[in-house]
């Protein structure tokens, strides 16, 4: 049995909030090994005092850290999609085929899928900041070979490695947001962070198209290197450690040095953690969830399909706008603005949804069931297929080019609403294994996002722009009833699940 962390609660951390869960807080990790037999002495237990508590930092400092973390997450996903507009340059300069060049996008996405299973356990042992700094330094270092690749194989290997390192901000960063803000105020900063990994892939084609049109394709990666360097500096200077067990550990070390008394300790120091055991727990628990829990599997497939379609558009939009409408690379990149406008509009509506969930909390006496989180996903489930069907039936050459861009906006808004609802539902409904539930979702999303771009070119040239996009819209329409079904029957399904909270 692991020891219990005893801290002095600050006024902020003691604020009750019935409407907002700790969405990304690592609720459950791999079970620690038995605690050392050494007796724990209360007077020597390091306490979390007001000036130690990350929730008690000045508001501007907390928002600065949250924005840096969010922009770092945005940069990681930006790096995934910007490569779609460098493919012609790779084919020309590295003497490869178009199919092989697409692997630059797919392998990066696969790295993003696998990474969270490894960096999650590391953050529970060594804290958030060490993971941020180490992963971003490696992210920065491994980007250099992609900017100066001597051979396509070198480029592809390091694209995978950069994706692996960038994954830290998709698995650990949400925990920092919930560390910094109490439950009553976490919704807005969490919404900003949640949107950032989806704005990043939209920004990639916009910047990539402009760069490729006006200079060499390598400048996409030069720009990325400059951005990464600035973020590394900001991560070292402006983002504090927020993980309380590690803060207490550092405080205990300082007390032992200052007093010379070796009896001072932090709870985490009396837990015999096995890193291998924690990593294996993060791998086999998501697999068990896929096999034995159909509700989690269905929701994971839904979010994976949506992200896969988004990544498929990085190959499909050049076909729609360059081949059908005669756009150049720069203009094609700007067509992704529709997705971004939809996502930002959905993000701007977050205060409304906060009010909806607050009213639901009042209705259920402060303890709303997890299924209320699917209300926002119901709206997204309707918007996403509508947007794709608009895109599908406006890709004819005779139709003005603005029409499919307008159609992409409701799809972008639908993505945000669906992911926001499903993420919070998975964390609250599967609270006993919340970290593993999110790792399973991340792994499936990344895997599908890696696969779909590989067949985009063949599908669009064989089925046509209308048929291919309509097929994708039909798939999203088939999945649209899921939030309505689980809203009604989710409690019954959770009662039968071996993983979900009762």
Question: What descriptive keywords fit this protein?
Answer:
mainly alpha; 21 helices
List the helices and strands and how they pair.
Blueprint (H helix, E strand, L loop, with lengths): L58 H24 L4 H7 L4 H4 L1 H12 L1 H11 L1 H20 L4 H15 L1 H4 L1 H8 L6 H28 L4 H20 L5 H16 L15 H18 L1 H31 L4 H6 L2 H12 L1 H14 L11 H18 L9 H28 L4 H46 L2 H15 L6
Rg of Cα set: 23 Å
Order of helices and strands: HHHHHHHHHHHHHHHHHHHHH
The end-to-end distance, rounded to whole angstroms, is 23 Å
Helicity, as a percent range: over 70%
The gross shape turns out to be: globular
State the total count of DSSP E strands.
0
> What summary fits the major beta sheet?
none
Low-confidence stretches: 1-41
Give the averaged pLDDT, no decimals: 84
Structural class: mainly alpha
For this structure, the quaternary state is single chain
* Beta strand %: under 5%
> What is the helix tally?
21
